[in-house]
């Protein structure tokens, strides 16, 4: 896989960073790729805006931060305002339609998905919003195999919560698949 | 064994001033060890810096002469890493309760099996007679030419409040009592504090006009009284001597052994079920780790 | 896929290296950005019968590991910024009393409380001269998790070999970043175990009399040989001495045992260094940006290479002089005001060709930051 740079942004508690780690870990542990994950530390991680950078590549990765993203995920309006300008031309911006009103100023594919509303309606547990987002992202483009992500989820969450996460992931995949291609 | 079998004769004569009480404490300590029949190889004496701290060089035990105030921190590492060792930690009053005060209360809080001996001569002797946190108000010292205004710690009350499970006090005048108390302190399982009032005729005695060593020992005799004695009842201003606390309480190294046992058990069982939940719980938790 | 592949933070890679090297005692105090090392070891050490203790402060932690080393254990502590300052006195004690131990310092912005959650490389000189008095020290560093693992193993090995504290100078980016780590199989890396004396019971054991090869076999506290350990200048018995000859000889020994072995202690990596006209010297996370840039420049035909230092102290003067001999310019890339640059200037033939590409706003220096300076030096504008 050629070097792909992701930025996941939202607010503390949405699980943005966990989702970023799961994606990167799936690439490393189950796809034989390299990945780095970094994140913003500080008060931001406790309710303020939060951001995590992930780079996935089949080559060694040196500089681990993302200044220009191929993929940008924004789960809050604030995140969208702050980061939409870093998207590479031709990149992908994924937002949640409940939390983000997009402007069409960036030269990238912007996809708004009602992930949060679907999670609340069908799963009734907002805690898995982040996993649904990850499903949607892979539904749009299979950066890593969904099965790899599920493997990581299985080893990450307590046994009793695997099914809940799996449902959220699959729900996301279905939502994302509508924009596939 | 003879007392000379417990000392490193090569390093004598010792460096303390004539009349200093610290030699008496060394003597009492060695007699206590002898009477308990302890193996010299099982004893580690850890000390800090100061007149008192030099005691560790003279004894034929494993000896660790460390940094000012830090003897108990070093001793904690020795003890926890090899709990079968017997830790003796003699400290001066400044060493134990000024620069080392935090280590002192935390060692007591953990109730780690260490015998802490506070050789209290109420002065910094090695540096030439400055006041210590045990000098108390109204005393003269080279750094208190107009007398001290600082209150002193009560070592016994402080130790009890901090959680020591054995707390006692004696003096260099009451040598036999001292040996008896030290034996009990060393045998005690848990953090044991023995405060021994000692005389510094060179600095404290001279500055505060308490006379020579013999006169200072007289003061120790007159101003202290045994716990439960009529003398103490009649005159509560006397400094009580004896054993104030001697209780059974969970000892740190023994408690940690239980942690090791349960950790090894759960590690073995999770290995067999090939789960790595623990790893992830750590990584995800550290996502939100920050601060100072 | 191998079970040994992990996706972890640098701090966890350090823990894995320490466990591989045989650490069985850790004392520490929580401080960002090193705390994960303590957290993970608090779980993993008791699982293998080791001991973890959270002390009342960083001073006590450093003292406790020295005590535990004397009973024959492999010991470490981990800290950052202010905590590293607090450990300095006891670090000097470990130098003087020759106690093997490992101190990880995950560097953050400073001085003082500085910037706990952001990166800096400002402790290079504190690692060298933080404790008072003449002495030598070993300090290692790494830019990626595989190397964090291996230099951590090295740190324990060097601590045992030279009976000295060894400092691991990591930084916040490497400590917190996650990437791949392949944990080697047992036996892949050599492990240096404690050298214990063969002197029998009843025969005089001289704890501070070096062997012909300079090494000092130890005897565990609790064993048959009872000896004195002190931070005072001491004779071969470990007993305090102010005899001028004893003092001089001991200080020479403490310094020579490290400085005479720079070649054996030096660790480094070369990236695109073959025929490089412009050499970037870097270490830790800033080396990642330097390598990124060098790769990028090479693809455009520019002769740019990186000398990545993994041992900072003793400073590998000979290596740096040799590698930089034919360079048109040497750019030291670091996140401080030129601490390593000064060492480089002191050892190359032509100090005027040494430049500093730095960043001191506690943000990771970027390849673009370095490129800007490189273009100026090349006379190509920015």
Architecture overview:
The complex is a heterotrimer of chains A (181), B (292) and C (382). Helix content of chain A is 39%, strand content 25%. Chain A is of the alpha/beta class. Chain A has one domain: Pyruvate-ferredoxin oxidoreductase, PFOR, domain III (Pyruvate-ferredoxin Oxidoreductase, domain 3), CATH 3.40.920.10. Chain A has a six-stranded mixed beta sheet, sandwiched between helices. In chain A, helix 4 runs parallel beside helix 6. Chain B has two domains: 248 residues, Thiamin diphosphate (ThDP)-binding fold, Pyr/PP domains (Rossmann fold, 3-Layer(aba) Sandwich), CATH 3.40.50; 35 residues, no CATH class. In chain B, 41% of the residues lie in helices and 17% in strands. Chain B contains twelve helices and ten strands. In chain B, strands 2-1-3-4-8-7-10-9 form an eight-stranded mixed beta sheet, with helices on both faces. In chain B, strands 5-6 form a two-stranded antiparallel ribbon. In chain B, helix 5 crosses helix 6. The relative contact order of chain B is 0.13. With 382 residues, chain C is of the alpha/beta class. Chain C folds into two domains: 265 residues, Thiamin diphosphate (ThDP)-binding fold, Pyr/PP domains (Rossmann fold); 109 residues, Rossmann fold. In chain C, 39% of the residues lie in helices and 21% in strands. In chain C, strands 2, 3, 4, 5, 6, 7, 8 and 14 form an eight-stranded mixed beta sheet that branches. In chain C, helix 11 links the parallel strand 12 and strand 13. The longest helix of chain C is centred in the middle third of the chain and has 18 residues. The model of chain C has no long low-confidence stretch (mean pLDDT 97). Chains A and C meet through helix 1 and strand 2 of A and strand 1, helix 8, strand 9 and helix 11 of C.
């Amino acid at each position: 896989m050629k070097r792909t740079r992701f930025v996941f942004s939202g607010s503390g508690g949405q699980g943005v960073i966990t989702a970023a780690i799961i994606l990167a870990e799936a690439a490393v542990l189950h796809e034989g790729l390299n990945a780095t994950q970094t994140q913003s530390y500080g008060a931001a991680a406790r309710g303020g805006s939060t951001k995590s950078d992930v780079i996935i590549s089949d080559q060694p990765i040196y500089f681990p931060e993302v200044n220009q993203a191929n993929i940008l995920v924004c789960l809050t309006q604030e995140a969208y305002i702050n980061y939409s300008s870093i998207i590479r031309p031709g990149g992908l911006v994924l937002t949640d339609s409940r939390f983000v009103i997009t402007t069409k100023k960036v030269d990238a594919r912007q996809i708004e998905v009602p992930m949060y509303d679907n999670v609340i309606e069908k799963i009734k547990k907002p805690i898995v919003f982040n996993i649904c987002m990850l499903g949607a992202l892979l539904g749009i483009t299979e950066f890593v195999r969904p099965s790899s992500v599920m493997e990581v989820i299985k080893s990450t969450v307590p046994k009793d919560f695997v099914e809940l996460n799996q449902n959220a992931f699959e729900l996301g995949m279905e939502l994302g698949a509508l924009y596939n291609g | 064994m003879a007392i000379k079998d417990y000392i490193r004769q090569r390093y004598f004569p010792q460096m303390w001033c004539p009349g200093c009480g610290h030699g008496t404490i060394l003597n009492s300590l060695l007699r206590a060890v002898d009477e308990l029949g302890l193996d010299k190889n099982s004893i580690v004496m850890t000390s800090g810096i100061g007149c008192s701290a030099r005691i560790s060089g003279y004894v034929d035990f494993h000896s660790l002469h460390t940094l000012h105030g830090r003897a108990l921190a070093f001793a904690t590492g020795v003890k926890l890493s090899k709990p079968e060792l017997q830790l003796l930690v003699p400290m001066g009053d400044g060493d134990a309760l000024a620069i080392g005060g935090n280590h002192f209360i935390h060692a007591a809080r953990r109730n780690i099996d260490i015998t802490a001996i506070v050789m209290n001569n109420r002065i910094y002797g090695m540096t030439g007679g400055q006041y210590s946190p045990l000098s108390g108000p109204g005393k003269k010292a080279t750094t208190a030419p107009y007398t001290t205004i600082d209150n002193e710690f009560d070592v016994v009350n402080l130790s009890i409040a901090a959680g020591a499970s054995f707390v006692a006090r004696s003096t260099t005048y009451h040598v036999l009592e001292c040996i008896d108390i030290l034996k009990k302190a060393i045998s005690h399982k848990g953090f044991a504090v023995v405060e021994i009032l000692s005389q510094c005729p060179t600095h404290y005695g001279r500055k505060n006009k308490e006379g020579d060593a013999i006169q200072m020992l007289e003061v120790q005799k007159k101003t202290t009284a045994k716990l439960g004695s009529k003398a103490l009842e009649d005159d509560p201003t006397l400094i009580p001597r004896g054993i104030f606390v001697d209780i059974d309480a969970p000892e740190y190294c023994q408690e940690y052994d239980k942690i090791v046992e349960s950790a090894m058990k759960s590690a073995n069982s999770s290995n067999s079920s090939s789960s790595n939940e623990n790893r992830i719980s750590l990584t995800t938790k550290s996502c939100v780790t920050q601060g100072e | 896929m191998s079970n040994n592949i992990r996706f972890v933070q640098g701090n966890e890679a350090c823990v894995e290296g320490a466990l591989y090297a045989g650490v069985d005692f850790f004392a520490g105090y929580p401080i960002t950005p090193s705390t994960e090392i303590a957290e993970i070891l608090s779980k993993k050490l008791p699982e293998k019968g080791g001991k973890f203790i959270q002390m009342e402060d960083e001073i006590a932690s450093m003292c406790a590991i020295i005590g535990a080393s004397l009973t024959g254990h492999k010991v470490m502590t981990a800290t950052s910024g202010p905590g590293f300052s607090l450990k300095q006195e006891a670090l000097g004690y470990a130098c003087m009393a020759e106690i093997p131990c490992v101190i990880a310092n995950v560097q953050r912005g400073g001085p003082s409380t500085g910037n706990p959650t952001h990166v800096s490389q400002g402790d290079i000189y504190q690692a060298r001269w933080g404790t008072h008095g003449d002495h030598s020290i070993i300090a290692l560093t790494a830019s990626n998790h595989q190397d964090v693992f291996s230099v951590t193993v090295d740190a324990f090995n060097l601590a045992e070999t030279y009976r000295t504290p060894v400092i691991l100078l990591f930084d916040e980016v490497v400590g917190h970043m996650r990437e791949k780590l392949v944990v080697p199989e047992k036996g892949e890396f050599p492990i240096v175990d404690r050298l214990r004396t063969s002197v029998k019971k009843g025969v005089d054991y001289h704890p501070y009399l070096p062997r012909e090869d300079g090494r000092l076999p130890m005897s565990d506290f609790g064993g048959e040989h009872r000896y004195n350990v002190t931070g005072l200048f001491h004779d071969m018995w470990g007993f305090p001495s102010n005899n001028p000859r004893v003092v001089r000889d001991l200080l020479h020994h403490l310094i020579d045992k490290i400085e005479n072995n720079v070649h054996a202690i030096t660790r480094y990596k070369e990236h695109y260094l073959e025929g490089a006209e412009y050499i970037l010297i870097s270490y830790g996370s800033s080396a990642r940006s330097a390598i990124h840039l060098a790769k990028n420049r090479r693809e455009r035909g520019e002769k740019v290479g990186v000398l990545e230092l993994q041992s900072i102290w003793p400073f590998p003067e000979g290596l740096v002089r040799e590698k930089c001999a034919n360079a048109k310019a040497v750019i030291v890339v670091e996140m401080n005001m030129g601490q390593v640059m000064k060492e480089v200037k002191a050892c190359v033939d032509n100090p005027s060709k040494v430049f500093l590409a730095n960043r001191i706003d506690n943000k990771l220096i970027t390849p673009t930051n370095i490129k800007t300076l490189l273009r100026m030096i090349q006379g190509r504008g920015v």
